[in-house]
Amino acid sequence: MDKGSGSAFVSAAENWEIQVDRVFISLTESYLCYHVVEPKQAKILMQDLTFVTDDIKVYTESGYPVVVGDNDAVKDRIAILEKSLPTWKELPIAERQFKVVEEEFSREICTHCPEVKIHRGNATIILEGPDKEVKLGATKLDELIRKVKEKRVKLPTAILTFLTSSGAISKYQAHFQQSLRNLVSIEVGSDLVLSSLSADALDEAEAALQRDLSLDNVQLQGAAAVPPDLDRVKEILMKAKNEANLRELRVDVSFIPGPSGAAVQVRLVGYSENVIKLKELLHNYQMNQTGTQELLSLPHPELVDCFHDVLKMIGMKQNKVTFKASHFPYPSVLVSGPRCLVKDVQTQLNATLASLTKDTLVLGGPAARRYFQEEGKMNKELVESCCQVIIREQQGVSGTTSSPGTTTVTPRLSFTRLSYNTAGSTAVNKTSLEIKLGNLVDEQVNVLVAPMINGQLASMKIGSGILKKAGNAINSKFDSAAANRTFAPGDVLQVDAPPSLGCSKLFFIECFPWDGVRGQSMQALGKGLKTCLDLCVQQRVCSVAFPIIGPGILLKYPLRVAIEVLTENIRLFGLSASTGSLSSIHIVIKPGYPDSEECYHDVYKHLSSNINQGGQAIFKSLTSDLDDITMTVGGGVKLQLVFGDITNEITDVVVNTTDFANFQNDGVCKDILTVAGPEVEAELRAANVKKGEIFVSESGSFPCDALLHVCGEKDAGIVEQLVCDIIRHCENYGFMSVAIPAICAGAGGLDPGVVAGAILRGVKAATSSTSLYSLTNIRLVLIKINVFLAFKEEATQMFPTAVINRVSVPQRPHVQQQQQQPPSLSVSTDLSILHSTSTSQKSVFVFLGLSRQDVDNAMTKLKDTYQAQCSTQTFRKEDLVGLTQDDLEDLRQLVESHGLYIQRDQSGQGSLTVSGLKDGVNQVTKKINDSMQENLRREVRAREEEELFSRVVWCILGNNGNWERLPKTANYKLENNDIAGGVVDAQGTEWSVDAQRSGASRPISGQTTKLKRLGNLPDFTLPLEWDNMAAGESFKVVALQPSSAEYKSVKEGFKRTVAKTVMKIERLQNVHLRRAYEAQKKQISDNRRQEGGAFEKLLYHGTTQENCDSIMKTGFNRRFAGQNATVYGHGTYFAVNASYSAHPTYSKPAADGSQLMFVARVLTGVYTLGSGDMKVPPPRSNSQPHDRCDSGGGQNRQPIDVCCVPRQPSVPRLPHHLQVRMLRMEDGCRRIVYDGLFWQQINCTLHTPAQRALHPTNGRN
Q1: Which tens digits make up the pLDDT trace of 527-542?
Q2: Helix, strand, or coil (residue 449)
Q3: I want to staple 1216 with a disulfide (CB 3.0 to 4.6 A). Which of 484, 793, 1115, 1240 is the partner?
Q4: Over the range 571-582, which residues count as b (16 or more CB within 10 Å of their CB) and which as e?
Q5: In angstroms, rounded to a whole number, what is the distance separating the alpha carbons of residues 1232 and 1136?
């Protein structure tokens, strides 16, 4: 607008302009123009149409919105716009923590900050929204984070790895979210970390994880640990794993290699249920492949001896399964092998044996069984092969209950688990003892007993052997059982045995090294052994094996002591009330050691003596791997394998093996020549013997008829031929028995098995090639264990009918009468027993086949081949009188083994007729003849013992200190120095004798005592208390030892009334006085039988040294009566109390102050009240004036003082000729006691210094 130049207009214009300016100023002040440049605000402004109103407009300028309107309205709108713009806040937080609080935090935001949005970042949380609400949300989050609790769970790395790889974490988090009130977060690192707002939720989550997840390492054992079985294990486990992981990973399997690269462990990790299933699968596989045993009950005892033949007959292949048939504890077969194969065998046997047919054939002819064992054996085998059957002899069948017949048996065999738990307890004599040779770890028993030191498995050699065989399995079981335990000597640790051992349990005894007989070691070992036996009874086991514990380099027990401790505990166990179900105790001796033979002999000796106690058998039997073996070879000759020393043989002929050059080298030759003597050795040195020849010499001092010397030349062929020649030589010269050693098995250097084969072939050839009429017994005597075992193995193969002899159970003598000769038979009774048992025998054969027709054909053929071959021999009654019970038992065994018949004479003559095969009858004849000779020898021995018993007395010092006479047998042995086997006293106690020290000791307890010998005179028997007296010696003074019971007894009686010190006690042995005293005692005893006998009393008599010598040699003399008054009559005075006789009036002190006193046993007989004028005792009654009293006494007829008056001076009624005890005291001894047994002298010490100086022995008693 152009204002122009006029002032008016200018003025008006200026006013208008001012007004306009005012208007614009007013508008400017009342309106606001706001440019929004923040993109988010601009976006909101452009999209929110509510911003445009009548008062506010929105324009766009340069792409940015401009808000124009009333100043206050625009400001309000801008404030609202600014408030509507969200605030961002980034908060750092651990993922596991936010997971725990997320749900609770979202709930808080919704409630208190609805406009805030939550965004997740990398270890952060972003809050977006209004600033105020964002700040409030951040505060809430911080509060929740502070409430989060964490728990670290220690899990094996394998489980943590499984959680990560299997996706189990998300699964568990989902599970916890559903099942727990508070969410639990899981995070895996070096440990498993659990997070939650609730401690209870953490505990529940941990428990769930521990319960649901598991890790197990399974040890592979045996064949399963190495290929190819290992490959099969992997295949089975991987297949099971894949099946379990079809939908998800639930279990993982890995194989952990051992040091040598072979897989020895399987690791299973995953969910517990799946781990358990795979573990069971692996366990079942190992159990099926691990060796196991099943006990198959057989329906017929005959199947035991022919079970392997049955297997062949039915075509069953054994493969890895083995069978061991046994009659114990009942007819059964032990099937051993892999579990799966054993079960297959069970099924197969049940199916195939259903058609088995059994029948019996009874042949009434004598000795039919014997015939088919020898001459008819080949025929029987042909019948078996032809008819496809098995034929066995049936033992012990009575002819009265068995008759020929046909019975078809179709048994169904039942299997039972091998178990030794027997209901009820076993009788005390049902336990069998077995001495086994071998390693303890190879024994097949329920329990093995082993030693240990300091609770360590491998501390002893036996424990190391167990560890070597069982491996880590026994190590872990031992450590588990011994954990947190301390062991005192004698404690027992029980450990379950792994399958690799042949037992179910192991008992380890904590031992203590040898510290002497009275030390702790013996007590500890005895305690441990007893505990083991008690545990066997408590746990109802059937069998246990003990080694000889102690004689090793660590414990260092003497071998003898170790054996005694073991066998004594076994003996005490046998004597206990019940042995439970324990049916077998094995004592295992390991061969090959220098003392193995000695150990065996000692164990056998102790056990055989323990098998019977007090006349009762406490064990069922004693068997040994070295028991004698008896076989019958050609011609009925008995062949025996004997483990022992050939120098102990008493056969007619003994064979010596030698090289004819070296006679002093240790071995059989040196032993035989030592016994035979130098003459035989000289004869042998001078001999010129060709190769393969026999040199015959005199026997010298050897108890046989001839010695045959041979050299095997280290050649088995020569040895075999020599044996044949030896047998022919014995037969040609009429010898009945021969003992042969193992020729060339010792110094000869040949293998024992080779020697065994050669000698046995020689015996078989010689006895089968020609008939033998003289030679009936061949004994192969073998001194080494390994040699005997080699012969045993060879003999049982060559002679299947071999019989092992077991230890019998004789009645042990325990009184004097039983130690004499064995009682002879009462022919009318004992032979009737033999008759009833033998004549009823039949020869019964059992047939087993797969069909009825096969069995019938076989029975017919066998019966047709049998022919009676009998002979008969009759014995007179006189021939049988001398038979003992042992002889009868031997005859019974001969009758049974040879199938003989015994028939008694019915006419009353007492004769006996034996019928059967010739060789059996011949052996019975020989046995009866031998018994007659033995009976004669016993009678001679009994007479010798009786005669010696009257001349010589051997005594043993009893527990009470008194000498006791030994029985006649012990007396005879001691006199003849036959003490190697010890002696038995009158109470049945066994003693070992030390002849040099005249002592004896008990083998087990070690108790010692003394022995002494007394030689009787022709007309006088020395009292047992006396010492022996030399020939022609009639008087002897013996000083008693203060330690003896005799000394103590006299001293105690004296000291009861006299307070003086005893210096010395002596016994007076006067043969003449004693002989007279005994005669007088017998006379008084006979005359006063109704009154009670001689009334022998212990009384005292004081005297002087001058009178002492006279009394000792001539006795008391009544003619000296009156020296010290005659108050009760003229005679010799005695007192009951020593104090009376000790008075100086009677026992007058010597110059040194000592006194003497006699202690005597006085025969008072019938006594009366004495009087001063009485010279002889008064008559007992007026009606019988010649029947006088025997002695006079003091007041009230009590023998305070006794006046002994003989009826006739020349024949003294009272024992004035006797032996006395003499006591020498310082004062106060006034009486002498008359003693008919012995006298003793006591010296009493003096109480003044001068008197003590004169008697250096003062004070000892």
Answers
A1: 999 999 999 988 888 8
A2: strand
A3: 1115
A4: bbbbeeeebbbb
A5: 9
